[in-house]
Amino acid sequence: MAFAQLGLNPLVVKAVEASGYTEPTAVQIQAIPATLQGTDLLVSSQTGSGKTAAFMLPCLHRLDQPSALPGRGPRVLVLTPTRELAQQVTRAAETYGKFLKRLRVVAAVGGAPLHVQAKLLSQPVDIVVATPGRLIDHLERGRIDFSRLETLILDEADRMLDMGFIDDIEAIIARTPATRQTLLFSATLEGVVGRLAQRVTKNARRIEIATAPENKAKIEQRIHFADDFSHKSRLLDHLLRDVALSQAVVFTSTKKSADDLAVQLRGEGFAAEALHGDMNQRDRNRTLQALRQGRTRVLVATDVAARGIDVPGISHVINFDLPRQAEDYVHRIGRTGRAGREGIAISLAAHFEKRQIRDIERYTAQAIRVGVIPGLEPKARPARPEGFGDKRRATAPRPAGGYGKGNGNGYGAKSSFGDRKAGFGDRKAAFGEKQSSFGEKTGYGHREGTRPGSDKRNAPSGTKRRAYGGY
Ligand code: AMP
């Protein structure tokens, strides 16, 4: 199918074609015509599926016609969980709308000066892309007029809820006109997201796009077991010297370890930079710009900071620390294999992390191959637990009570990851906090989102994420 067949304005189609896209993706084929009809939508689609264009193109189509209502406020509002994703959506709007007359897009995100944004928002604006916390700041100051708002998009709604934005989102929605069209995009439409969706949409059409099959096939995944921290570092060094690696994102579990690892890698001669939520917006932008321009070859990042990064040159994702939630694994590996390219995702795991890996395999319904690098073989042979790496098991249905309520010291253990009774920031130390994965005292501090300025609020109890594997 061609973009021209979707009923979009020719100026929008021209911009899409100028971006090099030849045909719409599955989510675009379904969501674009439905959005043009004015229906509310609940869309489950993974990152990398082309979801941004799926909601942005029909919005731009409408913006080519003047608003029937007076006012200067935005006609389209996109809420995103992170600043980086907001900036990416802003860029997408500008790219796809470049042939439209007088299109004004404003990013209202934390980290940038409030007064500069307030000035931009005081002029006529078509699209506002915002993180919830910052938008609330503007709303409280009376800087935004939603009287002519036509479309509200909640992008990566599941992530916004995970990050504790539920109250902000509800407060924002309460200020928008009841006549608006609402489009909710999320990796999952179940649980808290489903309940939010019910409250904020009307007669919504559900569009479920399974993990983009083309993406799944294009990301080669493997695990290397490491005996200890030094072995892990040697494995990383080896992997980063692979000539097939053009650019890599290396994930760590804490901001401190991201900083430390970036310093270590620079010392080893790599063009490495850290990216995490404690950095100010200017530094984050500069780092991402260097990555996009290819000046940075290795980005060492935390989950939240790396969310939404869309740099086609990223050939490898390396999990230096395993993610705490299986769904984060999917988001991490989605940083590679972008825009139809192939990618490699490698996880470095300690022998005692087999349960986490098994949970990831179950979540993704894919077995992950264990790789060994000659000369860097692990000394200990990991005993594979039942079902580990076994395709049949990996695709087995999940028990009703969820997985991973196991041995009390790993992923899925009741007191461990994701059991956020105490809310963000005041959880008990888990992997990578007081202790590194190998038990060394590192003093690594806060998890992302635990400090003021990281553009997140404390998670209310309603947004508690289940323990690893307990979906
Ligand atoms: P998203 O899921 O919105 O993060 O998009 C993932 C990537 O796919 C981005 O790099 C987009 O530029 C790219 N993309 C979006 N639509 C298409 C398309 N129809 N064909 C090829 N690439 C696309």
Low-confidence stretches: 212-217, 384-471
Radius of gyration, rounded?
22 Å
Strand content: 5-15%
Derived from helix and strand composition plus strand pairing, the structural class reads: alpha/beta
Tally the helices: 17
Please describe the biggest sheet, giving its number of strands, its sense, and whether it closes into a barrel. Answer: 7 strands, parallel
Helix content: 25-40%
**Total strands:** 14
Written overview of the protein:
34% of the residues lie in helices and 14% in strands. The protein is globular and about 70 Å long. The protein has 471 residues and is an alpha/beta fold. The protein has a 7-stranded parallel sheet, sandwiched between helices. The two termini are 36 Å apart. It binds adenosine monophosphate. Adenosine monophosphate is lined by residues 21, 24-25, 28, 47-53, 310, 338-340.
Please tag this protein with its features.
disordered C terminus, seven-stranded parallel β-sheet, globular, 14 strands, 34% helix, 471 residues, alpha/beta, binds adenosine monophosphate, 17 helices
Layout of helices and strands:
Elements: H1 10-18, H2 26-37, E1 41-44, H3 51-63, E2 76-79, H4 83-96, E3 105-108, H5 114-122, E4 127-130, H6 132-140, E5 151-154, H7 157-162, H8 166-174, E6 181-186, H9 191-200, E7 205-208, H10 213-218, E8 219-226, H11 229-240, E9 247-251, H12 255-267, E10 272-275, H13 281-292, E11 298-301, H14 303-306, E12 314-319, H15 326-333, E13 343-350, H16 354-364, E14 369-370, H17 391-394
Helix pairs in contact: 2-3, 3-4, 6-8, 15-16
The protein binds adenosine monophosphate.
